[in-house]
Amino acid sequence: MRDRVYLDWNATTPLRPEARAAMAAAFDVSGNPSSVHSEGRAARKLIEDARGAVAAAVGADPRNVVFTSGGTEANALALTPGLRRGGRGPAQRLIVSAIEHPSVLAGGRFAQGAIEIAPVLPSGLIDLESLAAVLASGPPALVSVMLANNETGAIQPVPEVAALVHEAGGILHVDAVQAFLKIPINIKALDADVLTVSAHKIGGPKGVGAAVAADGLEGLHAQVRGGGQEQGRRAGTENVAGIAGFGAAVRAAAGSMDVDAARMKALQARLESGLRDHRDTVIFSDTAPRLPNTTLVSALGLKAETAVIGFDLEGIAVSSGSACSSGKVQPSHVLQAMKADPGLLLGAIRLSLGWDSTEADIDRCLEAWRKLSGVLRKAHAIGLERF
């Protein structure tokens, strides 16, 4: 049995051996990828090979892939006023779902007064009727809806969202960072105008991501300026080693995605069956389609920070559904948007699996949950409201 169990794959993943090897080889390529000599062309080839891998993974044209420093920058690049495509747009306002990642809720280059929020249902899925009403209330909009939520794993009905957005003359951005290579993604099937992905969620290095545009998207102007790199959409000498690692991780993840997803789905079922053996346990978005690796769970009276420490002492890494800022715990904005029971908000724990998670890992997690549940019951017995 291994000493530690890692169940925080949605936060970041271990570096795949293929990515590590690709990066090590890239460190020996000394040329600047913008140079035309042999050394420069060797560096450029590493970038273009990775660009092709990312494009193939989402059914896009390689020339439409723009490498960035990560998912956050990719989202900021995508959230650009004035985007247009196929006679739709230009986007004059931004509509985001209430459960988006903070990098999307920040609004990119849109003024705060031009940002509107679309609500979600208690299931964690976007309220399509409300979205249609918001779309009808003003000029063409850029709408940003994540493909799969990073906390609950709920998979959004993106093709239905796209139909509403495009009928209203808008443009659709899809944050696919958490869903990338956990489920099949095709930019044309989703009917997205631009989507964003990140390397470190799939076994690539931290600090590398990409924005992927659909054919014909116009107005995706650089926010980092000063050079002509990345088709003029992102200035600065590219992170050759990081991008090479990204490409290698994409190829490895794509090659095993179906097998990994099926195995994680079985482990998820084992995990959630065990969690439900204990009273007052709630698994969020369990009525919605979800990623095969993500479980957000809570129990009445549970305190997330106590649970995270408890799991850690048992040798298990998990994360809280609450965001900590300046030492103050705040309820998850995702669960608030879902109108979850207030008694559950501060106790949400995210358990996320990966390609080498095992049944033994699940069993250790369930044993730790049993201990926490027992302590919680004792706390209730002596009148403590939250433990």
UniProtKB/TrEMBL annotation:
Keyword vocabulary terms for this entry: Iron, Iron-sulfur, Metal-binding, Pyridoxal phosphate, Transferase
Reactions catalysed, as given in the entry: (sulfur carrier)-H + L-cysteine = (sulfur carrier)-SH + L-alanine
Record's keyword annotation contains DNA repair: no
Needed cofactors: pyridoxal 5'-phosphate
Domain of life: Bacteria
One example GO MF annotation: metal ion binding
Limits of the Aminotransferase class V domain: 5-364
Listed InterPro entries: Aminotrans_V_dom (IPR000192), Cysteine_dSase (IPR016454), PyrdxlP-dep_Trfase (IPR015424), PyrdxlP-dep_Trfase_major (IPR015421), PyrdxlP-dep_Trfase_small (IPR015422)
SUPFAM superfamilies reported for this sequence: PLP-dependent transferases (SSF53383)
Cited function: Catalyzes the removal of elemental sulfur atoms from cysteine to produce alanine. Seems to participate in the biosynthesis of the nitrogenase metalloclusters by providing the inorganic sulfur required for the Fe-S core formation.
Family per similarity comment: Belongs to the class-V pyridoxal-phosphate-dependent aminotransferase family. NifS/IscS subfamily.
PANTHER family documented for this protein: CYSTEINE DESULFURASE, CYSTEINE DESULFURYLASE FAMILY MEMBER
Protein name: Cysteine desulfurase
Organism per entry: Afipia broomeae ATCC 49717
